[in-house]
Amino acid sequence: MKNYITLFFFSLTLFSQEVDVINTSKEIGIENWRIVNDDVMGGISKSNLYLNSDGNLIFEGEVSLENNGGFASCRLGTKNGEMNGIKSFKIKLKGDGKIYKFRVSERNGSINYSTNFQTKKGVWEEIIIPIKELEPTFMGYYSSRAPRLKIENMRTIGFLISDKQKGYFNLEVMHVKGVF
C-alpha cells in the first residue's frame, strides 16, 4: 500500500508543476514588453504598461473608436522553447469589468492564438486558460486555415482589449504561470 501512496504523491507533483512567465515579485516578465495599439492602422487609442506601488503589472489606457480604431495591446517576448509541454496558463489578475483577450503568438508566424476572459470590477481572480482554448486569429478575425498552436514555438504572450469597448481600461496582473 505504501508504494501506491508514494506513486500518488509523485503523480500529483508531476501534474502540478508550474513555470513563472510573469511574476513581478521575482522580477520575472517585467522586461521585453511592447505596446501595440490601433495607431499602427491610423487609430488613436493609447495605453501604458508599468509596475504599480504593490509591484503588480498595470496595463491601462483609453480605447478610441475614432479613425477606424478600437484596440490596445501589450506583448511580452519569450525565450525559444520556454513553454515546452505546458497545458494551460494560470493568471492572477484584477480587472475593471471589461472583456480582454489573452494572446499567444508563435515564432515566424502572423497568426495569434487567443481567448476572451471577462473581468470583475475591482476583484482579484485566478483564471485558467487551457492551451486548447486558444483560437487562431489573423488581424483580429478567426482563421479556420491556421495550423494548430505549437506552444514550443511561442514567441509572445500578451493582453488585448478590443471589440468596441471604448473608454478607459485598467488591468492589473500579479502573475502568469505556465502549468504542465
Instruction: Examine the coordinates and then state which fold CATH places here, giving the name of the CATH topology.
Output: Jelly Rolls
Q: Characterize the biggest β-sheet.
A: 7 strands, antiparallel
Order of helices and strands: HEEEEEEEEEEEEE
Radius of gyration: 17 Å
The helix count comes to 1
Secondary-structure content class: mainly beta
Q: Indicate the CATH class.
A: Mainly Beta
Mean pLDDT: 89
N-to-C span: 28 Å
Principal-axes geometry comes out as globular
Q: Can you tell me the number of structural domains?
A: 1
What is the name of the CATH superfamily? Galactose-binding lectin
Spatial sequence of strands, sheet with the most strands: 2-5-12-7-8-10-11
Beta fraction of the residues? over 45%
The CATH architecture category equals Sandwich
Helix and strand arrangement:
Elements: H1 2-15, E1 18-23, E2 33-37, E3 46-51, E4 57-63, E5 72-77, E6 88-94, E7 99-106, E8 112-118, E9 124-130, E10 135-138, E11 141-142, E12 154-161, E13 167-179
Antiparallel strand pairs: 1-13, 2-5, 3-4, 4-13, 5-12, 6-9, 6-13, 7-8, 7-12, 8-10, 10-11
Please name the defining characteristics of this protein.
Jelly Rolls; 1 helix; 180 residues; disordered N terminus; seven-stranded antiparallel β-sheet
